[in-house]
Amino acid sequence: MTDVKLTDVAKVYGGKVEVLKNIDLDIKTGELVVFVGPSGCGKSTLLRMIAGLEKISDGTLEIDGQVVNDIPPSQRGIAMVFQSYALYPHMTVRDNMAFALQIAKMPKAEIDAAVNAAAEKLQLTEYLDRLPKALSGGQRQRVAIGRAVVRSPKVYLFDEPLSNLDAALRVATRIEIAQLKEQMPDTTMIYVTHDQVEAMTLATRIVVLANKGIAQVGSPLDLYERPNSEFVAQFIGSPAMNLVAGEIVGTGAVTTLKVHDGGGTITSAVPSLPEDMGAQVNVGFRPEDAIQSDGENYAYEGEIEIQESLGEVTLIYFKRAAPEHEPVIAKLPGIHPEQRGKSMRLTADPEKVHIFRNGVSLLYR
Ligand SMILES: Nc1ncnc2c1ncn2[C@@H]1O[C@H](COP(=O)(O)OP(=O)(O)OP(=O)(O)O)[C@@H](O)[C@H]1O
């Protein structure tokens, strides 16, 4: 059991700047929970409160069923991995990894065994006698993770551990973290990132933070397929979900919508009620769910402003009547002939169309 439970947790800096409030979160043993959210929403603050590096202003934090609000970091059974690897430059990889255990006066044979086992898990065995300067960024970050692993913590906390790495190393190190997690199914990991792909691929659950609180918690696919709000819909997924203004013109088990901006009609599998008739809503569909329509049945029609061929897909950006709105984007499979300046019609699978009223998904009422 290494559950981490937050109940009504709040953070106020300096007695007046409220950064987080009413945070309720129950993280179960073996989960890898990822915190995401816009810059400054409090992701690092929340992680640092769990670590004990930041005081909790209100509410309770339990680890393993024990309230730890006033327990110092070293006694919480956690280990934290930072973006800056913070290795000791004059010490070998082996000594960097052994250091905390030596301080804790662990017998040498046990230290050696712990370091060797961690090095094996992280494929660092051949680098144990090198200094950090003779390692790549990805290897250095693995040593930093190894320093956490040797301590056999109950909970691992990662604060943007891959953001100093270049794209290729990020991918490789991300996969190593996923493999490490698989080898240690009973540890609990909490991870802060800006990176969508990291969040989607590593997380058992994603916590989206916004406006001082939790906007939504769910598995990556939950958040992608069933966002509860326009905010989450546009935050998860890249390019972001398209939103166009519309009106409900048919209710029942499926909803028919008239799209104002771009002109067609679209059906959503989200049911709506008779009293919704005439309601002004935003219709959402993801770029990858857009389907090119040749016929009369279409949801959106627009002039192509930009076209980007990525090989396996083509991104089509449509000009918006209201230039302050983000462009509507279609991600169409394959290569398409250049059609800039021409008009194109789109529709979308009804199962994948979202409806938002006052920013809230109609799925969630
Ligand atoms: N020591 C502090 N005193 C006052 N305000 C602080 C302090 N530390 C952080 N903040 C504020 O708290 C808010 C949350 O900061 P935090 O670093 O947790 O956000 P974040 O979501 O991790 O941001 P980013 O994604 O940019 O790293 C920010 O508005 C920040 O300015």
From TrEMBL:
Residues 4-236 form the ABC transporter domain. The keyword Cell membrane applies. InterPro entries: AAA+_ATPase (IPR003593), ABC_transporter-like_ATP-bd (IPR003439), ABC_transporter-like_CS (IPR017871), ABC_transpr_MalK-like (IPR015855), ABC_transpr_MalK/UgpC-like (IPR047641), Mo/tungstate-bd_C_term_dom (IPR008995), NA-bd_OB-fold (IPR012340), OB_MalK-like (IPR040582). Keywords: ATP-binding, Cell inner membrane, Cell membrane, Hydrolase, Membrane, Nucleotide-binding, Transport. SMART domains: AAA. Signal peptide: none annotated. The keyword Nuclease does not apply. GO terms for cellular component: ATP-binding cassette (ABC) transporter complex, substrate-binding subunit-containing; maltose transport complex. It is an enzyme of class 3 (hydrolase). It comes from the Bacteria. Its EC number is 3.6.3.19. One of its GO terms (molecular function) is ATP binding. Belongs to the ABC transporter superfamily. This is Maltose/maltodextrin import ATP-binding protein MalK. It comes from Jannaschia donghaensis.
